Amino acid sequence: MSVIEWRSEFGIGIEIADHDHQQLIGRIRGHQQMLATCTDPDEMVAVLDQIYTDIASHFALEEKLMEQMRYAALADHKEDHETLLDDLREIMVGVGDDGELDEVQLTDDLDRWFSDHFRTHDAKLHRAT
């Protein structure tokens, strides 16, 4: 079974942000562990929806903060959020259509995306706060 793990390279050196991100990764990891026991495509989609919801909630909080602080890079940051959410929606549609999920690919995609996003967009945001 392949699940996302917190790695030190995800850290941006700002304690509160790193803690929030560790918590998010932990929730996603728990959902991925549930996926490993799913055989029914509807169950898999439901668990993927939980991952989606956790990530979308985290993004909504970040975006609210960025709006409140009139963050200049809000549009780019939000666009990167939408990219991941779009990718997750496509995965859910694929599972719904063909009943299969490549768990390793999901983990690789999440791992790559979070690594890039935390080090770039989130690091800039939290240094501006």
Describe this structure as you would to a colleague.
The chain is mostly helical and 129 residues long. It has helices at 15-35, 41-68, 74-98, 103-128. The chain has four helices and no strands. Helix 1 (15-35) runs antiparallel to helix 2, helix 1 runs antiparallel to helix 4 (103-128) and helix 2 (41-68) packs antiparallel against helix 3 (74-98).
Short description:
The chain is mainly alpha-helical and 129 residues long.
Keyphrases for this structure?
single chain, 129 residues, mainly alpha, Four Helix Bundle (Hemerythrin (Met), subunit A), 4 helices, globular
Q: What would you give as the CATH superfamily?
A: Hemerythrin-like
**What's the architecture in CATH terms?**
Up-down Bundle
**Cα Rg:** 15 Å
Instruction: Provide the β-strand percentage band.
Output: under 5%
Q: What is the CATH class?
A: Mainly Alpha
Give start-end ranges of low-pLDDT stretches: none
Question: Helical proportion?
Answer: over 70%
- Give the overall pLDDT as a whole number: 90
Taken from the alpha-carbon principal axes, the silhouette is globular
N- to C-terminal distance? 38 Å
Whole-number count of domains = 1
Largest β sheet strand count, sense and barrel closure:
none
Structural class: mainly alpha
Q: So how many helices?
A: 4
